[in-house]
Amino acid sequence: MSLDLKFNYTEKKDTRSGFGDGFLEAGRKNPNVVGLCADLIGSLKMGDFQKEFPDRFFQTGIAEANMIGLAAGMALGGKIPFAGTFANFATGRVYDQIRQSVAYSDKNVKICASHAGLTLGEDGATHQILEDLGMMKMLPHMTVINPCDYNQTKAATIAIAEYEGPVYLRFGRPIWPIFTPANQKFEIGKAWKMIDGKDLTIFATGHLVWEAVVAEAMLREEGIHAEVINIHTIKPLDTEAILESVKKTGCAVSAEEHQLNGGLGDSIAQAFIRYNPAPLEYVGVNDSFGESGTPTQLLEKYGLNAENIVKAAKKALKRK
Amino acid sequence: MKKQSLPELQKICSQLRRDVLRMVHAVQSGHPGAPLGCAEFFVALYFDQLHHNPDFQMNGKGEDLFFLSNGHLSAGWYSVLARSGYFPVAELKTFRKLNSRLQGHPATHEHLPGIRIASGSLGQGLSVAIGTAQAKEIDQDNSLVYVLMGDGELQEGQVWEAAMYAAHFGVDNLIATVDYNGQQIDGPTIKVMDLKNLKAKWEAFGWEVIETKEGNDLASVIAGLEKAKSLTGKGKPILNLLYTEMGYGVDFMVGTHKWHGSPPNDEQLALALGQLEETLGDY
């Protein structure tokens, strides 16, 4: 029996391709947009931009710390640099460079981080960063964005070029359903209520928004009506939309491809505790590293798929 | 800006040293040694070499720009910025104090004119300077970008990432100076982590290297910077090895790492100031 999904797809693509296509479009719109990449141009899908704008693109070699400094220097000279590498090397490896030269110095640098999370798959835990959102959201001045599919990633990429200030944009490698509209408007910091519901709210980010959409249909078959909210912007968090939803539904589940410590769930819990205490269950990685495997296998093993969101939802409902 | 004579510039060096010592003494914190050693460099740069505008614009379009990568020399930089008109000289008295724009290490957060990037965590300034130099190139802005690093700072790996990059891209509107004083916080660099043959290292990385052997002789410093400038635009980044003495200008501070990060007490300040003429008026 197939599920009655509120959002569906006809095509699948990787979110990194959404970034690559959005980056090219941003470059066409604004001659100040420049690109940097640390020897991962193909992986980041930055090749089309490089081809069209060779004078505005800088291959930095395998030297991420230097890349962040270069980007800060270009930004202060009036450019809008998009610095791309894997999420692991875009955050943990260069935290101090981002902290001092970008965030503290308030430079208009876009840190573009691919291959984030477990869905990187076979490369294993060395590359599957699950702490990046936490590290980035702790930095003052930093905007943190984690879109859910190709279309949303493309729209987010175009939007951050038009926003003045440091941004961390997180995306990934797996071929994933495209279930949000093409040419959508992306509003930084504005949560998107995708599905109305009354019994509980699922706050999801990144690839797990799709899992939340599937979970909603599964819950509905059992007569449970979940609200699904797409939290594409982790910081600034749309606290108002989050609280408004949970006041109506009374309990919630957070779903993210990230450590529970420091992730979206943590940010939501803070908002609940301060303004509107309500039961919250977490779907995320519980204080462990990942491992090699296919994205689907990993999401299942680490408890990050639709079935786990359903389980968490039932737990949250019982606590109401 | 009208160029000043050597004796006039010497006077500014003396005043800069007084400013540095009085600033770190007043808060009993900060780093006097290296800025004393770089007084001639700061003055040569801001009062003789840079085409710059103290009416500060962050993007620095059409201006020569300077970045201080070894941010702990902040007292010296703040003094030369104030003395060149970026902000009131009286503001030097707020150095390292609460609610000041003159942070312990340089920062943009408080919008102090003249500062374009935070520095203090070492090894980052060269990358930033290269990025800005490339932004200038894209904009066909023919002005130059300068950066100062410490010699101990060269122990940071990022410096060599940046060195490789600048040579690869032929960034030739950039003059990087190394304050080659042979001292760092824990002792002489030769003992802490020997830099070995720096000239050969930078040359091997593809840089044009010049040596300014008398880094505390103003005429030599200016001549070195002139030479560096003459070598720009030829496809290679320029490295100026500036041989200085940490603590120069005060007999009991010179040539030792002991004054890297220690302020003088009242008595030591009086002794030191006695060796440095007040030329432009203390703040």
General description of the model:
- The complex is a heterodimer of chains A (about 325) and B (about 280).
- With about 325 residues, chain A is an alpha/beta fold.
- Chain A has two domains: about 15-175, Rossmann fold (3-Layer(aba) Sandwich), CATH 3.40.50.970; about 190-320, Rossmann fold, CATH 3.40.50.920.
- Chain A contains 13 helices and 14 strands.
- In chain A, strands 3-2-4-5-7-6-12 form a seven-stranded mixed β-sheet, sandwiched between helices.
- The longest helix of chain A has 15 residues, at about 15-30.
- With about 280 residues, chain B is α/β, with parallel strands linked by helices.
- Chain B has a single domain (about 5-275), classed as Rossmann fold.
- Chain B is about 35% helix and about 10% strand.
- Chain B has helices at about 5-25, 35, 40-50, 75-85, 125-140, 155-170, 190, 200-205, 220-230, 265-275, and strands at about 65-70, 145-150, 175-180, 185, 185-190, 210, 240-245.
- The radius of gyration of chain B is 17 Å and the shape is globular.
- The two termini of chain B are about 25 Å apart.
- The mean pLDDT of chain B is about 95.
- Chains A and B meet through α4 and α6 of A and α5 and α6 of B.
